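Researcher: Following up on the earlier apo prediction. This time include the ligand. It's zinc ion, with the SMILES given after the sequence.
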Amino acid sequence: MSHLFHAIIHSPFLPVPFRPGAAAAPSLGVNVAWPSRALRLPRASADKREQAMEEQGGAAALGWAARDATGVLSPYNFSRRVPRDDDVTIKVLYCGICHTDLHVIKNYWGNAMYPVVPGHEIVGVVTGVGGGVTRFKPGDTVGVGYFVGSCRSCDSCGKGHENYCAGVVLTSNGVDRAHGGAATKGGFSDVIVVSEHYVLRVPDGLPLDRTAPLLCAGVTVYSPMMRHGLNEPGKHLGVVGLGGLGHVAVKFGKAFGMKVTVISTSPSKRQEAVEHLGADEFLVSRDPEQMKAAMGTMDGIIDTVSAWHPIAPLLALLKPLGQMVLVGVPNKPLELPVYAIVPGGKGVAGNTVGSVGDCQAMLEFAGKHGIGAEVEVIKMDYVNTAMERLEKNDVRYRFVVDVAGSLGSAA
Ligand SMILES: [Zn+2]
Ligand SMILES: [Zn+2]
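Model: Understood. Below is the ligand-bound prediction.
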């Protein structure tokens, strides 16, 4: 695999250079080359390359990064960290595109640390392991999800809920405290280095492109289903929203032997939900008659909608002691009238992805039941169009970048 490489590009010590048209960026100064110029640079000699890698870090990496809030992604050369004893080096094969990636590259949450290499639904193959790695060997098929580190000493970590650790290190646009606070670079790149504690084993037989979205979307719905007992045959599960998260919730619910009802504002999704994904019923949330007829029938609801929406009518669908789980994050507060939960003793919970253990269990379950996401596999040079389409929810149901099959040619 060939990379363009230049020592100066990777120097973390240089000031951010002038970039025509670029506002002063909150850059950490790691990669500073404007892509078009970087691509014109002559390839460094092997000697220089090795010297620079020694000085600056580990393996040279080629990714696609957003440089500013336009969110436009383009090729980007950087280096991964020098592998530690417990690190696994992974050649990225596929990486899913999550709504979070879109939010971060466009800085909707105000926390982007440009250049941002997105991607946290990663499936790849191990190419190297540190001396202390016990669970993986070169050639293993592995996954990496939403986070690649945690403090390992807090209450949450002690209980196996690393995803709720205050020191969690996100896979993309996270703060790698153990490495001088550098911004983490995600799976839109040919190689990634991750501590084995946060690497997942992908069971044999799962199609790798369809597995990638399980690493975030899949575990985000699987984890709360397990925690709240929404995994028992015969129970009735409601799934609100039929997108990247919702469609895998339907699949898990059916694999658990549950009755699954999809709840959506779009009547047009009925056929897809019932005939293609195997949902038992379909409710149009804007139809008061349908909603009334389904009142008090559900044991639990997974609400995946990230736009503002009324939740009281959804809570009315729950049986007494039923559980609502919110996994979408609308940017305006939802309204929770207390009458909607007090009389029936109903619960409302949130959920963010899942622990390492949950994620591994989810993959095993998916392997056993042949569950994969519905995906549209794209090449990296289509990624900007994919982001535009994702913003309009124009995807069934997840874009997955064929990283290994397209990054080489992009270079
Ligand atoms: Zn995600
Ligand atoms: Zn912790």
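Model: Residues 234 and 258 are 5 Å apart (CA to CA).
Researcher: Noted. I'll compare it with the apo version next.
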